[in-house]
Write a structure and sequence with these properties.
Elements lengths: L1 H26 L4 H31 L3 H23 L7 H21 L1
InterPro entries: ChloroindolylP_hydrolase
Pfam family, one: Halogen_Hydrol
Keywords: Hydrolase, Membrane, Transmembrane, Transmembrane helix
């Protein structure tokens, strides 16, 4: 969650920079297309460093690299898909024993997933 907050901070910094760059280039009387490109470039110049710095602080606090973080998030997404399949298997249960087994598997996988998040 805090990693996503770095994207919000990047947008909070990037949007005003983009607006200022756009209006500055509009005052200098460039064509609209060039003004638009300058505004987008201003957003990128404001967004990327801010997002990188704030996300780096969070990753350093967690002792992770970006590559490790993206790998973990990818694995969490895969687990969520598998949990959905386990949840769908409740429909195919034919006995109480099977239901208990599937329920235990689902609770265990959900507990592990929430602990890792």
């Amino acid at each position: 969650m805090r990693y996503l907050l770095s994207r919000v901070w990047g947008a909070v910094v990037g949007v005003p920079v983009a607006v200022i760059a756009f209006f500055t280039s509009a005052i200098l009387d460039f064509t609209f297309l060039i003004d638009f490109v300058i505004g987008i470039a201003g957003f990128v110049v404001g967004y990327v460093p801010t997002q990188r710095l704030t996300s780096r602080a969070y990753l350093k606090e967690m002792n992770l690299t970006r590559k490790d973080y993206h790998y973990i998030m990818h694995q969490i997404n895969l687990v969520q898909n598998k949990n959905k399949r386990i949840l769908k298997s409740f429909i195919k249960v034919r006995s109480i024993q099977d239901f208990k087994l599937v329920n235990d598997i689902y609770r265990l996988s959900r507990t592990i997933n929430s602990a890792i998040k």
